[in-house]
Amino acid sequence: MAKSQLLLPSLVLLLFILISKTISQSIIQLSRDRDDVYCNSWRFSVETNDVGYWDYVPSGCVSYVQDYMTGDGYRSDSEVVASYALAFAKTVEIAGDGKDAWVFDVDETLLSNLPYYVLHGFGSEPFDELSFDKWVDLAEAPALQASLDLYKELKQLGFNVFMLTGRSEYQRNATGKNLLFAGYSDWERLILRESSDKGKPATLYKSQKRLELVNEGYRIHGNSGDQWSDLFGFAVSRRSFKLPNPMYYIP
Amino acid sequence: MAKSQLLLPSLVLLLFILISKTISQSIIQLSRDRDDVYCNSWRFSVETNDVGYWDYVPSGCVSYVQDYMTGDGYRSDSEVVASYALAFAKTVEIAGDGKDAWVFDVDETLLSNLPYYVLHGFGSEPFDELSFDKWVDLAEAPALQASLDLYKELKQLGFNVFMLTGRSEYQRNATGKNLLFAGYSDWERLILRESSDKGKPATLYKSQKRLELVNEGYRIHGNSGDQWSDLFGFAVSRRSFKLPNPMYYIP
């Protein structure tokens, strides 16, 4: 009897805790869901290039971007893009003359600067060239795993891989070292901005460099990049693969 | 005493029900979340044009697409795209010579065929021209609300609006009637496929029609469409606005 008399209030208390926890979780979830709906739409507009030029992640979406970048979303999106790139690559007939090419951007495409952006607000802070250059010099950015897997498959299929980056010539050593560190090897050429490319919009600079490849006789079948400025312009590849990047925009 | 003796087993039962419901909900949620992560990534690849040509919504993503199209996601994405289109439109200096133009696609841009697709599997079934033509003849497709709002604002700002659709000339009456029914009015021109356009890829057909406008002296500032084939090609607008559409792909 005494035991059941003690059990009763405990059970009532437990029920109360369980129900109030459920209710408060529901309220938090509801407000989170509403923010997420907007931030999801903001990301849609960013990734489809509807936003055009943008500076920072909206303040209301910073934790959304953090969750996306560090959770399943970013990894999964990158994997699915890579799977479509590979499916296309497998349909390409490799001529065997060494002219079948694939172009990769570097930052947020082959290499992930997530360890840097974790410490710099996931794109919510103004870009700080000084601290980013220091990070580049460390040459310790990990590979974007899906891109590394794709890269290896493309090499196996017989593609010649070109890396076309907005980084500058003075960063050649650090960039090459970092690419090796991350597991890349046997690329055909690493193309960086020369002094004559300084100040050019990325779309123009990258188009000109692709045109040089085309003029050398390369057939650019695929092009992978996290910015539309990696993919648009002239001398474009047969198929372009836009990787996700809700952290920053390069015109 | 007797009362509390009855209360005790009831409370234990209630607790048991509550806990087992929570657990089973968690398991369902977990598997749903996993599917959603993939389908979200599939939608990312579709909307960024990474997939290229695709026939149907993957069978594992049909209910995901249904939820997206009938829930907050589609409405919110359309609204955010429209907000960026309007923000850009407001930066355009209207010359007052009647040559400042905006081009809209019709299906899934100005008009929503969702009532049709609700009955036809949300893009999971092969396209059935016969039943779709019957639906077109009804001329009862509602407006995509965000596009209607944008349309009215653009008219206010002084843009001349062109509607450029993949529909054919024989559907001119039904299409015009439907646009009026949905709330659109005072468009400059409704452009449909003539017999000479039959069989042309949408990108070519729409580029040629835009080029005709450019040759008539129109300045195409903005272009809104749910397909990349509405936006790519030549004689492209200064800014393009890709609306969401995870139900079908038009090359």
TrEMBL record, chains A, B:
Signal peptide interval: 1-24
Matches recorded under CDD domains: HAD_VSP (cd07535)
Database matches in Gene3D superfamilies: HAD superfamily/HAD-like (3.40.50.1000)
UniProt keyword Transmembrane helix, yes or no: no
Cross-referenced InterPro entries: Acid_phosphat_B-like, Acid_phosphatase_pln, APS1/VSP, HAD-like_sf, HAD_sf
Origin species: Dovyalis caffra
Designated name of the protein: Acid phosphatase
Function field: May function as somatic storage protein during early seedling development.
